[in-house]
Amino acid sequence: MFEKATRLKLRFETTKGLLSVEDLWELPLTSPTSKVNLDEIARGLHHKVTTQTEVSFVNPTAKSAAAEKDQLALDIVKHVIGVRLAENEAAAKARANAEQKKKILEILDEKDTESLKGKSTEELRAMVAGL
Fold first, then answer.
1. C-alpha distance across the termini of the chain, in Å
2. Given a cut of 90, is residue 131 above it in pLDDT?
């Protein structure tokens, strides 16, 4: 898919100009402002692909070169969106795990402190002498 796109020098039309396949990886998934985003590009391509009216009743599987190019562009954008969503999910999970680990380490520290507080003076002096 990406080989074909690069051989065709596939470009994506946006409100800010043409973008290459590589540029797609830098775009946000969505944008509350008028900033170019992957969702906007995908919706435009989807509309373009679904409204193409070129039909052949003799050879129904035949597609025009433009239709194939549009479908390829849509497939690439959908792939990039899928990868970015998976990356976002993995990052969110990593953040949640890091937060949970931090809480556990804090609790362990508190328990260690409580354990030390429960020791007798002689035990604490022996521990200090051992250091």
1. 64
2. no
